[in-house]
Design goal:
Chain B: Pfam families: ATP-synt_C. Chain B: Keywords: ATP synthesis, CF(0), Hydrogen ion transport, Ion transport, Lipid-binding, Membrane, Thylakoid, Transmembrane, Transmembrane helix, Transport. The structure holds two protein chains of two kinds. Chain A is mainly alpha-helical. Chain A has six helices and no strands. Chain A has one domain. The longest helix of chain B is centred in the first third of the chain and has 39 residues. The termini of chain B are close together. Classes of the chains: A mainly alpha, B mainly alpha. The interface between A and B is medium-sized, with 40 and 30 residues.
Amino acid sequence: MLVFPLLQPENDSSKEDQRELETLGESSQSTESNLNLGPVMEASIASSDEYVQLQQRIFRAALLVSALAVAITAFFFESQVAISLLIGALSGVLYLRLLARSIGQLGTSSKSVSKIQLVVPVVLVLAVSKLSQLELLPALLGFLLYKPSLIFQILLESRSRASS
Amino acid sequence: MDSITTAASVVAAGLAVGLGAIGPGIGQGSAAQGAVEGIARQPEAEGKIRGTLLLSFAFMESLTIYGLVVALVLLFANPFAG
């Protein structure tokens, strides 16, 4: 008799707590259903544009460095060396383009980064070894001409981060 | 080219590609894993993550390319072929 009235309010409070929990659950469900994913998608699209712009900057810088190197080589060395350097530089830009494309597809249409870009140096070395008009060392140095543009891009990014 | 030089060149070419691809392979795998996790957590930072991944992949894969070039030179333009 004495215990029952003491327990009764506790039961009432637990029921109230349960009702509050139910109402909270309903409200959270309603917020989930009304969740607006628009800003996240817009930010993701803007971020993809940023990646495309980064690619374009790197390609422009690589082409500029390649043109400068080919011009200097043509001035100081034979035309055969300059042509080999030009072919190597174009192969390097193609390699970088394929790498950028496979990284762009990572997580969306493929689960891993493809290795198709490694065909480019293989074909370059094979072509240089088979064709007597081309030389191996200038072609390989030309292939590596995309690296200065990458280093320049990293330096630019680190400087902009430090300033911001 | 005598047979010993040919055999040594072939073995060296295999070792150059095989050993040279181990480190970059592991590094690229872990980098890609981190990038995909980062994109899944922060889709708004996708461009920056992909840009950083592109730069790091270009530098990592160059190690594989060095091994590949050494192997191809040994196989097709061997300087030790008398």
